[in-house]
Amino acid sequence: MVVRVAVAGCTGYAGGEVLRLLLEHPGVEIGALTAGSSAGGRLGEHQPHLWPLADREIQPTDAGTLAGHDVVFLALPHGTSGPIAEQLGDDTLVIDCGADFRLTDPAAWQQFYGSEYAGSWPYGLPELPGQRQTLARTTRIAVPGCYPTSVTLALMPAVTAGLIDGHDVVVVAASGPSGAGKSLKPHLLGAELMGSASAYGVGGVHRHTPEILQNLALLGASEPTLSFTPVLVPMSRGILATCTAPLANPEIGIEQVRTAYAEAYAGEEFVHLLPEGQWPQTQAVLGSNGVQVQVAVDAAAGRLVAVAAIDNLTKGTAGGAVQCMNLALGLDETTGLPRIGVAP
Ligand SMILES: NC(=O)C1=CN([C@@H]2O[C@H](COP(=O)(O)OP(=O)(O)OC[C@H]3O[C@@H](n4cnc5c(N)ncnc54)[C@H](OP(=O)(O)O)[C@@H]3O)[C@@H](O)[C@H]2O)C=CC1
Ligand SMILES: CC(=O)N[C@@H](CCC(=O)OP(=O)(O)O)C(=O)O
């Protein structure tokens, strides 16, 4: 089976990463490539690494251009996906890399995004309990945000095993600037970034806060609370999320924690619980769909410490999106997805 796939937002970081993965996918034929102001140009002008597609013309992003494909990836700015998706038939598998359909609570959407609520689609994190069955039966998928992917996978086994109850979760997560997309922003200029790390979205205002809370609640946390601080660091890709939360009781030790994590991730192809003493590194997952996880018990503080590393553009966006496509098409979910990172 070969499916015909269109990519909207092909000139951006997320769309480019979707295409990098699709070019190596055995079950895919690449159809329309669309964008906004770049329409009319050639892909090679924007994505020099995607050389087999260099001469392909970039088309405008509209339903007419995207129609007639089996799968459409939307890698567009927030608020742009909804109106397009509405015009695509239910028989087309539409995978949105943006945030438009991630949140189930309209009030949270309004508070953090400030625009009209578009609705919610099945959430594209296959590792969540029961989610593979949901993804296998849908033609609409909302790919998670990059920080929520890393934080959710860092904490999932602890929540489902009752080792933490989800209150007072504190997350500090470092990300490379590719997470912010390609469009020019003054704080992302090379001179501002190089040799410097800076917190942003501080004080509970980052828009991934409600998405992480939604995931913790879905995993069984009754009234989760979260303090989330993202940090911009000078590496092009990668997220390192350090998450801590009070242990449910003082008897919980590292052996119980490691057993819960090992059991939860035993069958997962992409999530690797590291051997004791090794800690996740972004470089080790670079360009791969892998997730490195490690845990510790800080007995003096009475807290669990869980750390996860992902590539924000791969498992954090495009790799997760392709993994979901595979599931929705009934393919092996690892098809076309690199599992090994890069070193040094
Ligand atoms: N970067 C990341 O790590 C992650 C990104 N995402 C999400 O993926 C989506 C894309 O992000 P990213 O690739 O980083 O962003 P970029 O800014 O790098 O790319 C945006 C893409 O959208 C196109 N575009 C912009 N405005 C319009 C419009 N009005 N109509 C049609 N096309 C338009 C751009 O085309 P043109 O060249 O013509 O301007 C470009 O192809 C966003 O929703 C983002 O939140 C999700 C998780 C992680
Ligand atoms: C470094 C950086 O700026 N990162 C982005 C996160 C990008 C992401 O996950 O995407 P969504 O916008 O689709 O949620 C940010 O903090 O807004």
TrEMBL record:
What PROSITE patterns does its record include? ARGC
**Reactions it catalyzes:** N-acetyl-L-glutamate 5-semialdehyde + phosphate + NADP(+) = N-acetyl-L-glutamyl 5-phosphate + NADPH + H(+)
| One example of a Gene Ontology biological process annotation | L-arginine biosynthetic process
SMART domains in alphabetical order: Semialdhyde_dh
InterPro entries in the cross-refs: AGPR, AGPR_AS, AGPR_dimerisation_dom, AGPR_type-1, NAD(P)-bd_dom_sf, Semialdehyde_DH_NAD-bd
One example GO MF annotation: NADP+ binding
Q: What is its EC number?
A: 1.2.1.38
NCBIfam families from the UniProt entry: argC
Q: Which family does it belong to?
A: Belongs to the NAGSA dehydrogenase family. Type 1 subfamily.
The molecule here is called N-acetyl-gamma-glutamyl-phosphate reductase
Q: What is the protein's species of origin?
A: Enemella evansiae
Q: Which gene encodes it?
A: argC
